[in-house]
Amino acid sequence: MKNLILPLLAIMALFVSCSDDSEGTQPYDNTFYGNLIYNAAIVASDAKCDVSIVDNVATVTLYAVKFAPAMPAMDIVIPGISCVKSNTGYLLSAENVVPLVAGVPVEAYAMSKVTGEVAGGTFTISCVTARGTIVFDNRFAMPGNPALSDNSYAGELLVGGFAKNTVVDVTFNEAASTVDIVINDAKFADNMPLVIDIALRGIPYTSDETIAFAATDVVPYINAEPEPVNAYTFATFEGNIVGGRLVLAAKMSENLAPYVAGKVFEFSGEIVE
Questions:
Q1: Which value, in Å, is the radius of gyration of the alpha carbons in the chain?
Q2: Is 270 helix (H, G, I), strand (E, B) or coil?
Q3: Which of 33, 125, 180, 257 could bond to 171 as cystine, CB 3.0-4.6 Å?
Q4: pLDDT tens digit string along 19-55?
Q5: Helix H or strand E segment including 267
Q6: Whether 54 contacts 27, CB under 8 Å
């Protein structure tokens, strides 16, 4: 009997070992080309991005990154991103990541939040830094024929250092080449007692390979009030829609009440199916 039990135990140990290994993601490597977006502005439409996944950890490399014309190009490596298998590919997420440039950690570009997804032949990633939001998205709209459909987008609204999940509604007026955007349930701080809906109407847009919109000195409508409210004027407002992702960046005027003056809004969200 003893001679029979020992081989059985060995087989069981081998089975358990194989089962544990199967829970991890398979090694994955791929290269994507797409839009590199910084603070809602496309800075490159053919940016290169590598994604490598080993043992449930992803490393993403953004090549030749430039945030301004005079800035020298640099390769940014984002290491240590947690990865899980999904029905369509992989989901990526991490917090407080320090990226590498030329192999050296760069605290100036520390990323408070990183989210991404590999789905078939597409890859998107959003990296929130103190200097702004970096997005890579290779889900191209057809050149000259972007989808001007009214949609809602769910994602994170960042106002200063306060983050809140919300939904942004986008409605097009093709005849006037303008778009209305409603930021639902916005808050500026954790101790703000009420949420407000901020509607920005008549924002001019252009549509080429992507949908982009921008305006200055925008006076929003608050909570469906019939008249715009000057106390919440935005000095700048811009954004774009690439594939199923909406990215916004805005700044309130400096001459407003102290609790809103100069507030910077950033939003990145996916289309609500």
A1: 22
A2: strand
A3: 180
A4: 344 455 678 999 888 888 888 888 887 788 999 999 9
A5: strand 264-271
A6: yes
